Predict the structure of Carbohydrate kinase PfkB domain-containing protein.
Amino acid sequence: MTHLLPTLPLHLEIKERNDSMRVLAIGDNVMDIYLDSKRMFPGGNAINFSVMATRIPEITSGYLGNFGNDNLAKLMKSTLKTFNVNIDHCRNLKGESGYSLVKVVNGDRKFLASNRGGVLNQGIKISDNKDYINAMDLIHLSVNGNGKEIINYISKPKIVYDYSDFSNENEITLTIDNVDLACFSVGNVSKDRVVERARQLQRMGNYHTILLFTMGKQGAMVFARNRCYYQPAQLTNHIKDTMGAGDSFITYFSTGLLRENWDISSIPNILKSASLFSAKQLKIDGSLGVSFNIPDLQLKELCKER
């Protein structure tokens, strides 16, 4: 397997800066294996957030999770180090790294199969890292990263929770009352249905829970303190890949709120900037613009296992 050092597009270049806000993503790391191109792309909600946050000025970013003892883990760790994401508190475990098999159809990705997170299923050790976690300004959790098992350890930072879609009702019920920003990806859902669901979720959460719905080509909607905000999608030509577009929107929007001390009057401006930030994501391959070759033999074995 060949490790290609990433050439970063202009808008992804890492710049020196005085960091002032600390964010941490806890959860999954997954290698997205594209069958068409026979290339692997580092990803997963937590990885995407932690790396994308490094593109934003005045942010120090970290990732907390499990790494396997295979070559996929080595590639994942080298990628995070390239982007200056802190991984000092992660565990290295015996087992298989998380991966998913992906095919791109008309610029949109289709997930075909996965190993359901690999070593993530051994549990992320939170108890030894409570002080580290609670020294952060913002924590990112997700339904794909054992978020419901972690949330009760968090007492001080703002909490961003990516619930993916509407299908995880039990997890929403268990956690949303403790969440500052609840995020949903609903590209195929009508605006009317989003409004209806938002009203239900507002009754479930606390008064201060902000709801963010990323809706693909339909744009994005935010509900905060009985107000609704809508942001049209940014028109983008020559879309390469939609992987990570929702994560990039969540990353910019949540850190924008953090920068503005969670002032809801700043939401319209943050939404507009988040839309522009997310549109750039559509012009790169994979979630991070970083990829690796995968030998035919290994690809055949992975496909056979699934």
Observations:
- The radius of gyration is 18 Å.
- The domain at 10-305 is CATH 3.40.1190.20 (UDP-N-acetylmuramoyl-L-alanine:D-glutamate ligase).
- The longest strand covers residues 98-105.
